[in-house]
């Protein structure tokens, strides 16, 4: 045990950093709406002048703090923007794009840095996968939420009745995310609220946590949501020497970070704070590559060093590959098959993958977009990787 600890200590010090990938949630945002009894008196322009659902000034400051952290941590590794070495990719939501802009403002001060995005978030399998159609995932989550709602509707009957009287909604377990959307986001921005909010907010937050995690809390569910992103990140590490890529920053959503943590087997089962960042570092030590994963969920403490199941802090790339091989989705076609999106009836003869383009007429348009943004690509690298497992 002492030998292992000494090895890890000196390894972390002397390992050579080769690549960093950062998956960061957007900054603080405005609620999407308010509750019916609040609509006549709530002036969104007063408290959230940029409008519902938009990044707040506080959120932009949070984003700039992330950029400052990255600049400090990786000083000497990426000091200036180089488009061959650095890629900034965002979900096509304004709050994510603006978060990416805030990060680059302090990560690369006084430099012009492009932020790449996707044509529409409902097709963005990389950074908004929870909005991409997946019949199997939707079915599983619907059933799981129904079971959870049946339990909490009984356990929290009085709370829901109270919330219904106070909000004007007919509140039950299925409505708790909307309640959280309003109460928590107003609270986080210091918006004055009735006294009753203080008495219920902790319970509402806990219920939100349960309903959020149940969307991704299994290997199958998380694979259908972030298996493609995990594959892309792994591919970029494997090709680092050829590509010369040193830093990739992904600006995304809490659902994506939550699912990715379940995909990697490192979830803390908590809600993901604004601008929390999952950081994947690729190191080289004595000619061998290692993967190190960090989770930064607070600006007041150092990032948490995460351990993949069965691995040390510095995880040998071979062990990493074995762990993720069955959690990766190689391309959009595989995603549609796993999600059971295709309208092909089962038949005795083998499934012909060439029939997919006729089922997915939008694929050509999507692919041209991928080439344009230069940050999302289809690959079959993992067919051989999966064979090894």
UniProtKB/TrEMBL annotation:
<protein>
    <submittedName>
        <fullName>Uncharacterized protein</fullName>
    </submittedName>
</protein>
<dbReference type="InterPro" id="IPR000560">
    <property type="entry name" value="His_Pase_clade-2"/>
</dbReference>
<dbReference type="InterPro" id="IPR033379">
    <property type="entry name" value="Acid_Pase_AS"/>
</dbReference>
<dbReference type="InterPro" id="IPR050645">
    <property type="entry name" value="Histidine_acid_phosphatase"/>
</dbReference>
<comment type="similarity">
    <text>Belongs to the histidine acid phosphatase family.</text>
</comment>
<dbReference type="Pfam" id="PF00328">
    <property type="entry name" value="His_Phos_2"/>
</dbReference>
<dbReference type="InterPro" id="IPR029033">
    <property type="entry name" value="His_PPase_superfam"/>
</dbReference>
<dbReference type="GO" id="GO:0003993">
    <property type="term" value="F:acid phosphatase activity"/>
</dbReference>
<feature type="signal peptide">
    <location>
        <begin position="1"/>
        <end position="15"/>
    </location>
</feature>
<keyword id="KW-0732">Signal</keyword>
């Amino acid at each position: 045990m002492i030998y292992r600890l000494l090895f890890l200590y000196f390894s972390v010090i002397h390992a050579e950093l080769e690549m960093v990938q950062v998956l960061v949630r957007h900054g603080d945002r405005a609620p999407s709406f308010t509750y019916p009894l609040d609509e006549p008196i709530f002036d969104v322009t007063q408290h959230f002048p940029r409008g519902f659902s938009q990044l707040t000034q506080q959120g932009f400051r949070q984003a700039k703090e992330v950029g400052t952290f990255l600049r400090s941590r990786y000083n000497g590794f990426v000091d200036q923007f180089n488009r061959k070495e650095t890629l900034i990719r965002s979900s096509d939501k304004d709050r994510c794009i603006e978060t990416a802009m805030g990060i680059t403002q302090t990560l690369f001060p006084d430099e012009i840095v492009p932020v790449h995005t996707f044509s529409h978030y409902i097709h963005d399998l990389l950074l908004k996968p929870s909005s991409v159609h997946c019949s199997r995932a939707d079915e599983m989550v619907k059933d799981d939420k129904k079971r959870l709602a049946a339990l909490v509707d009984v356990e929290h009957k009085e709370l829901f009745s109270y919330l219904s009287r106070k909000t004007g909604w007919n509140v039950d377990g299925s409505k708790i995310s909307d309640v959280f959307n309003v109460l928590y986001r107003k609270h986080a921005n210091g918006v004055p609220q009735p006294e009753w909010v203080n008495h219920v907010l902790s319970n509402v937050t806990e219920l939100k946590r349960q309903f959020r995690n149940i969307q991704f809390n299994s290997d199958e569910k998380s694979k259908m949501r972030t298996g493609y992103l995990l594959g892309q990140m792994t591919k970029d590490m494997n090709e680092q020497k050829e590509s010369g890529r040193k830093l990739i920053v992904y600006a995304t959503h809490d659902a994506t970070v939550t699912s990715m943590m379940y995909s990697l087997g490192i979830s803390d089962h908590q809600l993901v704070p604004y601008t929390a960042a999952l950081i994947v570092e690729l190191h080289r030590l004595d000619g061998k590559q290692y993967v190190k994963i960090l989770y930064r969920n607070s600006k007041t403490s150092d990032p948490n060093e995460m351990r993949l199941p069965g691995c040390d802090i510095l995880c040998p790339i071979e062990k990493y590959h074995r762990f993720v091989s069955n959690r990766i989705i190689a391309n959009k076609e595989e995603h549609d098959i796993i999600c059971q999106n295709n309208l092909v009836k089962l038949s005795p003869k083998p499934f012909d993958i060439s029939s997919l383009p006729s089922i997915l007429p939008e694929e050509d348009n999507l692919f041209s977009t991928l080439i344009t943004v230069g940050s999302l690509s289809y690959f079959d690298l993992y067919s051989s990787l999966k064979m090894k497992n």
